[in-house]
């Protein structure tokens, strides 16, 4: 019995490791690659959309990750570094996207909802 356990346990651990690798590889592959959303991010900024957040906020990190390297083109305010601006803007939660017409979208939005709210196309 002990011999079977010594053989089966490493095989089971290996199979579990492969399953986890495939799952995580699929999650990484679903994010946009470098620069793929540059035009979308530029459009958001051109239309006056601003994301307010905090580095320690996991929802903010998720929102940024969806953009990949294109997030560098999004107008972003780090609220702990700019508390007065965030208070004046009425930011009460992170992330918050604001638009020039006064609309605020609070929480993770994802690119599809941002596209709908802004009128910007995802290419």
What would you say this structure looks like, in words?
- With 123 residues, this protein is α+β, with helices and mostly antiparallel strands.
- It has 2 domains: 1-30; 38-118, Glutaredoxin.
- The protein contains 5 helices and 4 strands.
- It has helices at residues 2-29, 38-46, 58-67, 83-89, 110-118; strands at 50-53, 76-78, 96-98, 104-106.
- A 4-stranded mixed beta sheet has the order 2-1-3-4, with no helix packed on it.
- Strand 1, helix 3 and strand 2 (76-78) form a beta-alpha-beta unit.
- The chain is globular.
- It starts with a helix and ends in a 5-residue tail after the last helix.
Attribute tags:
123 residues; alpha+beta; Glutaredoxin; 2 domains; four-stranded mixed β-sheet
Topology:
Blueprint: H1 2-29, H2 38-46, E1 50-53, H3 58-67, E2 76-78, H4 83-89, E3 96-98, E4 104-106, H5 110-118
Parallel strand pairs: 1-2
Antiparallel strand pairs: 1-3, 3-4
Poorly predicted parts: 14-32
Average pLDDT for all residues: 82
User: How many whole angstroms does the radius of gyration measure?
Assistant: 20 Å
**Spatial strand arrangement across the major sheet:** 2-1-3-4
Helix content: 40-55%
How much of the sequence lies in strands comes to 5-15%
What is the CATH architecture descriptor of the largest domain?
3-Layer(aba) Sandwich
The termini sit apart by 58 Å
Order of helices and strands: HHEHEHEEH
Pairing-aware structural class of the strands and helices?
alpha+beta
What's the total count of β strands?
A: 4
Q: CATH homologous superfamily of the largest domain? A: Glutaredoxin
Helical segment count: 5
How many structural units, i.e. domains?
A: 2
The biggest beta sheet is recorded as: 4 strands, mixed
Which CATH class of the largest domain is shown?
Answer: Alpha Beta
The shape is globular
The CATH topology name of the largest domain reads Glutaredoxin
Q: What oligomeric assembly is this protein in? A: single chain
């Amino acid at each position: 019995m002990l011999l079977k356990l010594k053989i089966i346990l490493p095989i089971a651990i290996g199979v579990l490791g492969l399953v986890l690798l495939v799952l995580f590889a699929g999650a990484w592959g679903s994010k946009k690659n470098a620069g793929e959303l540059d035009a979308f991010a530029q459009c958001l900024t051109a239309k006056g959309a601003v994301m307010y957040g905090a580095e320690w906020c996991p929802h903010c990190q998720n929102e940024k990750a969806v953009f990949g390297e294109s997030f560098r083109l999004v107008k972003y305010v780090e609220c702990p570094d700019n508390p007065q601006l965030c208070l004046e803007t009425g930011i009460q939660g992170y992330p918050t996207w604001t638009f020039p017409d006064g609309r605020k979208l609070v929480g993770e939005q994802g690119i599809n909802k941002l596209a709908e709210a802004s009128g910007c196309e995802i290419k």
